[in-house]
Amino acid sequence: MVDVSETQERPHVVGNNSKVEEPYPLRLKGNVIKGFGRGGKELGIPTANLPEEVSEYAGKFLESGILYGWASVGPDATVHPMVMSLGWNPFYKNEKRSAEVHIIHKYDEDFYEKELRVIVAGYIRPEKNYTSLEALINDINFDIKVAHNCLARAAYDQLKNDPFLQPSV
Question: What percent of the chain has pLDDT over 70?
């Protein structure tokens, strides 16, 4: 179990500073499905869930954990930073591996069934179990800061211009 105090001991930047290393970048796409309904409601950190087959595909290349990158959704070509949980979310004891994307942007509406395009640029940390909901929320908020710091590096920043993130015609 993880305590709240452990968040402050984590690095603020992870990964190679000068280049994106294998297996990244990984491009994922799928229509947003209904998840567990806890991201926005329980955590105050809304997530968009990718379909199970996309999670399974990602799991062939990526270690379970918290990842970062870029995302766009629906017909909107605007690209935003994101953090993604890929795995079983031990705090909630999921029985299926899921890919839950938190786009770091305030949306006024849900986007179920809309196409979500994601470029995963790097790995932040492994999944953890937590002693409290507060500890989980604190760690997610720290992950968001780490993602911003990592994506500010030139090699990672340029990924937001990848044509993959543009809406399908």
Answer: 87
